[in-house]
Amino acid sequence: MISAEHLTVTLNGRDVVRDVSFWLRDGEMVALVGPNGAGKSSVLKALAGVVPSEGDIRIGDAPADKMTVRERAKRLAWLPQTRPVAWNLMAEDVVALGRFADAPAPFDRMGEADRAAVVAALDKADATHLIGRSFQALSGGEQARVHLARLLASPAPVLLLDEPCAALDIAHQLALMAALKAEAAAGRTLIVVLHDLELAARFCPRILVMQAGVLVADGAPEVALSAETLAGVFGVRLDAKGRLERASP
Asked: Is residue 163 part of a domain?
């Protein structure tokens, strides 16, 4: 479970998130959508504790501001929008970083249970064939799947994903969303930032919509992505065949 009450994030003197409140139960998978600059990434960063914020954030039954960095990392794992890796690591060692809060060791020095968790995460991300390959030598899509495996390798009950479908082909986008849905079914709580509204509506039973730092809609896809919201927030509408198109000026 994770919740935010009156969450506000101020960067460079400007409120990029303003008075946002929501509550997610265990096993819930929620899409966080909105146009560029709406504040989606800033919400995830505030929940992860990497930018200062005002308001009350609770992870499980505990206030986040009372947690140490390690305590927070054991409860919450975050996949940022940009994911640089400065070292020339093997793919499996990048994934092993997801176990760092509990088992700070490279893959070949991990215990059996942690190694099994890393391999299982690579399998969920369709990336087991990348074991033994340098991360820096992988394609952008392959690197994205390794980063996803790193997140899934974490034992944290709450997962935050910022545009996880970026750089993935359509088949792997669908596989990714199905894998995330399975994580929710297993009891994990997920917040997924997406730009593809059709993917969000297909895989997420609940959608949060942000605009200009404010939460403007929260509900099932047919409610949160109403015709009014599509036009007013995204500048699009559904055509006669149910496809998204730009709304008339």
From this structure: yes
**Domain final residue pick, 101, 125, 155:** 155
Is residue 108 a part of any domain in this protein?
A: yes
Q: What is the pTM for the complete model shown? A: 0.94
Each residue's pLDDT, cut to its tens digit, for the chain (249 residues) gives 999 999 999 999 999 999 999 999 999 999 999 999 999 999 999 999 999 999 999 999 899 999 998 899 999 999 998 888 878 899 999 999 998 887 667 787 888 999 999 999 999 999 999 999 999 999 999 999 999 999 999 999 999 999 999 989 999 999 999 999 999 999 999 999 999 999 999 999 999 999 999 999 999 999 999 999 999 999 998 887 778 888 876
Q: DSSP strand E in the chain: where?
A: 2-11, 14-24, 29-33, 54-59, 62-63, 76-79, 158-162, 189-193, 206-211, 214-219, 236-238, 244-246
Provide the token pair at 54: 């005002």
CB-neighbour burial class of residue 197 (10 A; exposed 0-12, middle 13-18, buried 19+): buried
Structural domain tally of the chain?
Answer: 2
Token pair in block for residue 86: 């400065």
**Is 31 in the same domain as 137?**
no
